[in-house]
Design goal:
Length: 157
């Protein structure tokens, strides 16, 4: 009985017990998926945002991709916060005693980045509204759905 308990403790305190702390759990995969997806969509929104001045309908794609990037980033923050504060993840059994893990600076930096995306999304909505509702110099309303054909320039010589 004593020998079996000693052998079990050796496995828990040795390499097998240490490898238990470094597994790649499903919540790790979910966080990585949402972060990578949000980064890809943010890059896509930058690419479409550059084209919005020349072709105003891309402003819709810009806003939509930025919103989905913001949503994915918020989900990643929420999943990490909830999973990191679970008791089985927060307290780790070490060789000497029990250690409490705390949320580090990287989480707060990511939350600040998500907040910046939220501000960018609000700005994107306002600029998209500007691109849709444009008034020309004559006061007539020109928008995405009522394109006016360009007139040829006439010069009196």
């Amino acid at each position: 009985m004593v020998i079996e308990n000693t052998l079990n403790n050796i496995d828990e305190d040795g390499a097998a017990g240490e490898s238990e702390h470094h597994k790649f759990w499903a919540w790790h995969k979910a966080i990585l998926f949402f972060i990578i997806t949000s980064q890809f969509l943010a890059f896509l929104s930058i690419c479409t945002g550059v084209c919005a001045t020349c072709f105003p309908p891309t402003a819709f794609v810009f806003v939509i991709s930025l919103f989905v990037a913001l949503l994915c980033s918020l989900i990643a923050d929420g999943v990490f916060f909830l999973a990191a504060n679970r008791v089985d993840n927060r307290f780790v059994q070490g060789m000497v005693g029990t250690y409490e893990q705390r949320i580090g600076y990287a989480f707060y930096l990511h939350v600040m980045g998500t907040f910046c995306w939220m501000i960018a999304f609000i700005c994107a909505i306002t600029t998209t509204y500007k691109f849709i509702n444009v008034r020309d110099s004559r006061g007539s309303k020109e928008n995405l759905f009522t394109w006016q054909s360009q007139r040829a320039a006439t010069h009196n010589v």
